[in-house]
Amino acid sequence: GAGVSQSPSNKVTEKGKDVELRCDPISGHTALYWYRQRLGQGLEFLIYFQGNSAPDKSGLPSDRFSAERTGESVSTLTIQRTQQEDSAVYLCASSPPGGRAEEQFFGPGTRLTVL
Amino acid sequence: AQSVTQLDSQVPVFEEAPVELRCNYSSSVSVYLFWYVQYPNQGLQLLLKYLSGSTLVESINGFEAEFNKSQTSFHLRKPSVHISDTAEYFCAVSEPGGFKTIFGAGTRLFVKA
Prior knowledge:
The complex is a heterodimer. Helix content of chain A is 0%, strand content 46%. Chain A is built from no helices and ten strands. In chain A, a hairpin with a 5-residue loop joins strand 6 and strand 7. In chain B, the strands form three sheets. In chain B, strands 2, 5, 6, 10, 11 and 12 form a six-stranded mixed sheet that branches. Chain B has a four-stranded antiparallel sheet with strand order 3-9-8-7, with no helix packed on it. Chain B is mostly beta strands. At the A-B interface, strand 4, strand 5 and strand 8 of A face strand 5, strand 6, strand 10 and strand 11 of B.
């Protein structure tokens, strides 16, 4: 596609349930990022994938959060046993080979609401 | 560690008035600086960036920002805003060649008729 796409656009779940959020990066982009945007706050870095290198998971807030990426395409962010504080917009971004911060293209985000 | 402070959470202005959205950063190393814009129900878009060279950078829709190293600021300005500029604006910083970007909390610009 022309840009980064994310699905679903909105997700409402009950506390304790697991959720999966999907990101389709721009074709040819080797780097992929996940961010979390809580209401009234800036974007928090969660995880970074670059090609076949080991991902940088330093931003994941707890072991309930995990992410996978299939080659240089789709990525899935999984949140297990969701808590109300997980409610946020989850943003995905991708960038061309080299993966420099100044070349990120963002998706529209998934708004997660945990009841 | 790097950090970004956006001093105003909301800025209401009338159409055709000038506006300045403030951004200050802290970093112990050299930086790249960015402004991103998020229009309602859309993803973040890069508005402008400072990497090196001229400290005044401009966007295609009339915004400009000036890198001030001594004041560690990168304020965003526009001399005359339009209704269509209503959006949330995020200031961000990264290290040259790095992949991590640190974002401010955002400033919601609301342009009134």
